[in-house]
Design a protein that fits this description.
Blueprint (H helix, E strand, L loop, with lengths): L1 H5 L1 H17 L4 H18 L5 H12 L2 H17 L2
Helix pairs in contact: 2-5, 3-5
Length: 84
Amino acid sequence: MSSVLSNFDNWKKFLGDRVEAAKKLGIDEDAISKLAYEIGSFLDQKVDPKNNEERVLKELWDVGDEADRKTMARLMVKLADSNT
């Protein structure tokens, strides 16, 4: 997975593919956003950003409250979805 994280375009495509697969399984957008929030929390705690874009996202995540983070997660799902 480290190769996916090393390039932001690869990361967006990876996320987009996963969002598309989840939708094909019948998972609704709210559930996908909740999962994105959980993944964001995990990445914030366990993964060092691999590029400038990920560092900006981490810094925004760190200064945001829970509502801000949920918004970021929904926006990342939308961004990923637009890259499929």
